[in-house]
Amino acid sequence: MKPSVWVQMDGWVRHIVPTGVTLFLLFLTAIPTHIPGLAGITPMLPMMGVYYWAIYRPDLLPAWAAFLIGLLHDIIAGTPFGVNALVMVLVQGVSASQRKFFLGKSFMVAWWAFSLLAAGASALSWLMTSILSGRVIDPGPAFFQYFLTLGLFPLLTRVLARTQMAFLKEA
Amino acid sequence: MKQSGAVGRLATLRLLAQRFAFVSLIVAAVALMILGKADIVLVERTRSLVADAVAPILDAISRPAATINEFTESVRELASLRAENARLKQENQRLLHWQMVARRLDADNAVLHEQLNVVPGPDPAFITARVIGDLGSAYGHSMLLGAGARDGVRKGQAVLSGEVLVGHIAEVGERSSRLLLLTDLNAKIPVVVEASRTRAILAGDNKDRPKLSYIAGAASVSVGDRVVTSASGAAFPPGLPIGVVASTHDGIARVQPFVRRHELEFVAIVDYGLGGVLPFERPPMPEKRRRGGDN
């Protein structure tokens, strides 16, 4: 039996939640916060979104969605075209390929793995931006950004888990 | 048995397709980077198109953020009202003195202008734009503004906050534009150290304090000197305040800009009728000059 149109629509809406939430995180990062010193070290919230969904629902945030989110990030941030797209695709790919290892593991394991992955991602963005701009960029802000991101990971993971509970219970 | 073999093959095929998609996305990202280096015009157009598309969203969500910020700001101001009042009184006294000086100089200046028959420069036109996006990247210092070509914004125009130079317009879309801050890696602004009239280029390097490079002549730059824009290159009108020299370590002078980035909410995009730092077309100067020389 075919489900009614409304049920189907409901399903679709629920299925765009992961990408939608990650996009929202990107826009959230772009809000001018007017907090002194925060500019230049804003946490990498969209990356956490990509990481989370790649582990728990890789079918709903596939690599191409990560790519587009990264590209949009490049456009809003004014960073060289393609750098974040590459980083996001790699984050998605690596975490999705290791998801069997994460499922059922404790939160600390997820945090630890994220710290490694985010370190790699930061290093890669720094390297690519430096190469593309032809100069060695001061890595200081990238370090602060990295630690701020790590610090926010527990909070954001909780929010994302709640979102998953609310919209994607069937999984 | 046969069926499970088919299913297995299908799964392998699917995995292969996924791998292929993944690899092609990586290749696409790298290709975009190379394209971004090679064909700047195309990439810039794409950038501004997409930025235009997301501008309304960013604008909408930056408004409540601004309201919350105003509220917390007013609470903070209430807390420090007394101290602030005392400071302002003192400052007012000092400024009254300066006002007197300025009035006298203004009168002097008017008289001198009259005597010399100075032709006044055109009054600059300006557009006020909201800051709608500030991703605060660790790799570049720029902001998205909620005004674009349809509002009269053009590439290279100076962006001021109050009387102070913030940066210039680097990309223009139809209804959004990108403001490149003084501190960005790619920002290079011809300046002059006010006290000694030393010319230099203020070069950003993603740090809070951009450095003075290509200092002309003997390096006579000392801490506390005011740095303003110079007329070299006809990028900006001369005399726009930028900052003060904050340190001179190992022959590298760094400038503390007057602008405080986190306070930027509205900025003025000013059209001085000059080419800006990024002129669109090469002016056909040499030929004309030669003809003038022959005559």
From TrEMBL, chain A:
* Pfam families linked to this entry: MreD (PF04093)
Q: Which UniProt keywords apply?
A: Cell membrane, Cell shape, Membrane, Transmembrane, Transmembrane helix
Recorded hits in NCBIfam families, A to Z, give:
shape_MreD
Which segments cross the bilayer? 12-31, 61-91, 111-131, 143-161
Compartment(s) where it occurs, according to its Swiss-Prot or TrEMBL record: Cell membrane
Q: Please name the GO terms of the biological process aspect recorded for this protein, alphabetically.
A: regulation of cell shape
Highest rank taxon of the organism: Bacteria
- Source organism per entry reads Magnetospirillum moscoviense
Principal subcellular localisation of the protein: membrane
Q: What family does this belong to?
A: Belongs to the MreD family.
Q: How does it sit in the membrane?
A: Multi-pass membrane protein
Cellular component annotations (GO), alphabetically ordered? plasma membrane
Protein name, entry field:
Rod shape-determining protein MreD
Which taxonomic lineage does the organism of this UniProt entry have? Bacteria, Pseudomonadati, Pseudomonadota, Alphaproteobacteria, Rhodospirillales
Q: InterPro entries per the record?
A: Cell_shape_determining_MreD (IPR007227)
Automatic annotation (TrEMBL), chain B:
Transmembrane helix recorded as keyword: yes
Segments passing through the bilayer: 20-38
| Residues in Rod shape-determining protein MreC beta-barrel core domain copies | 131-270
Q: Which Pfam families match?
A: MreC
Among InterPro entries, the record links this protein to: Cell/Rod_1 (IPR042177), Cell/Rod_MreC_2 (IPR042175), MreC (IPR007221), MreC_beta-barrel_core (IPR055342)
UniProt record, GO biological process = regulation of cell shape
Keywords attached to this entry: Cell shape, Membrane, Transmembrane, Transmembrane helix
GO cellular component: a single term: plasma membrane
Is-annotated flag, keyword Membrane? yes
Similarity annotation: Belongs to the MreC family.
Q: What is this protein called?
A: Cell shape-determining protein MreC
What organism is the protein native to?
A: Magnetospirillum moscoviense
